[in-house]
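Dear colleague,

Thank you for sharing your sequence with our group. We've completed the structure prediction you requested, and as agreed, I am returning the results in plain text so they can be pasted directly into your records. Please verify that the sequence below matches your submission; if there's any discrepancy, let me know and we will rerun it promptly.
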Amino acid sequence: MDLTSIELPGSMIADIKVLDEEVRVRFEPAYLVKTMTGSDERTRWRQNIELIFDSGELLEGGTIDLPAGCTGGDVGENIYTYRDMVPIPLESRGQAHCDLGVEGSSLRIRIQAEGVHLAREGMPKYIEHLRD
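Please find the predicted C-alpha coordinates below.
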Protein backbone atom coordinates (compact mmCIF):
# COMPACT_ATOMS: atom_id res chain seq x y z
CA MET A 1 0.00 0.00 0.00
CA ASP A 2 1.28 3.46 -0.86
CA LEU A 3 1.10 6.27 1.69
CA THR A 4 1.00 9.88 0.48
CA SER A 5 1.01 13.04 2.55
CA ILE A 6 1.46 16.77 2.08
CA GLU A 7 4.67 18.00 3.70
CA LEU A 8 3.56 21.36 5.12
CA PRO A 9 6.99 22.95 5.83
CA GLY A 10 8.18 24.37 2.51
CA SER A 11 4.85 24.07 0.69
CA MET A 12 3.75 27.42 -0.74
CA ILE A 13 0.50 28.98 0.45
CA ALA A 14 -0.75 30.90 -2.58
CA ASP A 15 -4.13 32.12 -1.38
CA ILE A 16 -6.82 31.99 1.29
CA LYS A 17 -10.42 32.44 0.17
CA VAL A 18 -13.55 32.72 2.25
CA LEU A 19 -16.57 31.77 0.11
CA ASP A 20 -19.96 31.61 1.83
CA GLU A 21 -19.31 29.08 4.62
CA GLU A 22 -16.17 27.62 3.07
CA VAL A 23 -12.55 28.56 3.78
CA ARG A 24 -10.03 27.44 1.14
CA VAL A 25 -6.27 27.39 1.67
CA ARG A 26 -4.53 26.95 -1.70
CA PHE A 27 -1.06 25.42 -1.87
CA GLU A 28 0.74 26.18 -5.12
CA PRO A 29 2.61 23.91 -5.01
CA ALA A 30 2.14 21.52 -2.14
CA TYR A 31 5.05 19.13 -1.69
CA LEU A 32 4.00 15.50 -1.37
CA VAL A 33 5.96 12.58 0.05
CA LYS A 34 5.03 9.11 -1.19
CA THR A 35 6.11 5.99 0.69
CA MET A 36 5.66 2.46 -0.55
CA THR A 37 4.98 -0.19 2.08
CA GLY A 38 7.97 -2.52 2.45
CA SER A 39 10.41 -0.02 0.93
CA ASP A 40 12.86 2.31 2.68
CA GLU A 41 12.77 4.74 -0.23
CA ARG A 42 10.45 7.68 -0.44
CA THR A 43 9.76 10.08 -3.29
CA ARG A 44 8.95 13.81 -3.36
CA TRP A 45 6.32 15.24 -5.71
CA ARG A 46 4.60 18.60 -6.25
CA GLN A 47 0.95 19.32 -6.96
CA ASN A 48 -1.44 22.24 -6.54
CA ILE A 49 -3.92 21.39 -3.77
CA GLU A 50 -6.70 23.18 -1.92
CA LEU A 51 -7.39 22.39 1.72
CA ILE A 52 -11.14 23.11 2.04
CA PHE A 53 -12.82 23.72 5.38
CA ASP A 54 -16.62 23.29 5.31
CA SER A 55 -18.79 25.59 7.43
CA GLY A 56 -15.51 27.19 8.39
CA GLU A 57 -14.42 30.44 9.96
CA LEU A 58 -11.08 32.16 9.36
CA LEU A 59 -10.05 33.16 12.90
CA GLU A 60 -6.63 34.63 12.02
CA GLY A 61 -4.51 35.13 8.92
CA GLY A 62 -6.72 37.13 6.59
CA THR A 63 -4.15 39.95 6.41
CA ILE A 64 -1.05 37.83 5.69
CA ASP A 65 0.81 38.76 2.49
CA LEU A 66 0.61 35.77 0.17
CA PRO A 67 2.09 33.85 -1.54
CA ALA A 68 4.41 32.69 1.22
CA GLY A 69 6.04 29.51 2.41
CA CYS A 70 4.37 27.44 5.10
CA THR A 71 6.58 26.85 8.13
CA GLY A 72 4.42 23.98 9.36
CA GLY A 73 1.69 23.59 11.90
CA ASP A 74 -1.35 21.49 12.70
CA VAL A 75 -4.34 20.31 10.70
CA GLY A 76 -6.94 18.46 12.74
CA GLU A 77 -10.07 16.48 12.15
CA ASN A 78 -12.12 15.06 15.01
CA ILE A 79 -9.70 13.32 17.41
CA TYR A 80 -6.70 13.38 15.01
CA THR A 81 -4.15 16.18 14.75
CA TYR A 82 -1.59 16.02 11.96
CA ARG A 83 1.59 17.97 12.70
CA ASP A 84 3.56 19.34 9.73
CA MET A 85 1.71 17.01 7.33
CA VAL A 86 -1.71 16.24 5.87
CA PRO A 87 -2.63 12.71 4.79
CA ILE A 88 -3.92 12.11 1.26
CA PRO A 89 -6.77 11.44 0.87
CA LEU A 90 -8.44 13.56 3.55
CA GLU A 91 -12.19 13.92 3.88
CA SER A 92 -13.84 14.28 7.26
CA ARG A 93 -17.06 15.55 8.81
CA GLY A 94 -17.06 16.82 12.37
CA GLN A 95 -14.69 19.17 14.15
CA ALA A 96 -11.84 20.40 11.93
CA HIS A 97 -9.17 23.03 12.45
CA CYS A 98 -5.83 24.30 11.25
CA ASP A 99 -3.08 26.42 12.75
CA LEU A 100 -0.35 27.10 10.18
CA GLY A 101 2.78 29.24 10.36
CA VAL A 102 3.82 31.45 7.44
CA GLU A 103 7.34 32.62 6.52
CA GLY A 104 7.93 36.30 7.21
CA SER A 105 4.94 36.75 9.52
CA SER A 106 4.26 36.33 13.22
CA LEU A 107 0.57 35.86 12.35
CA ARG A 108 -0.81 32.36 11.88
CA ILE A 109 -3.52 30.96 9.65
CA ARG A 110 -6.15 29.69 12.08
CA ILE A 111 -9.40 28.09 10.91
CA GLN A 112 -12.21 26.34 12.79
CA ALA A 113 -14.75 24.29 10.81
CA GLU A 114 -17.25 21.45 10.72
CA GLY A 115 -15.45 19.41 8.08
CA VAL A 116 -12.36 19.31 5.90
CA HIS A 117 -11.39 17.80 2.55
CA LEU A 118 -8.79 18.17 -0.20
CA ALA A 119 -9.16 19.14 -3.86
CA ARG A 120 -6.20 18.11 -6.03
CA GLU A 121 -5.44 19.81 -9.35
CA GLY A 122 -4.01 17.73 -12.19
CA MET A 123 -1.47 14.98 -11.69
CA PRO A 124 1.45 15.13 -9.23
CA LYS A 125 4.85 15.91 -10.80
CA TYR A 126 7.90 13.90 -9.69
CA ILE A 127 10.79 15.83 -8.10
CA GLU A 128 13.23 13.38 -6.49
CA HIS A 129 13.96 10.22 -4.53
CA LEU A 130 14.56 10.70 -0.80
CA ARG A 131 17.06 8.44 0.87
CA ASP A 132 17.92 8.47 4.55
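Summary note from our side: The chain has a mean pLDDT of 95.

Kind regards,
the structure core
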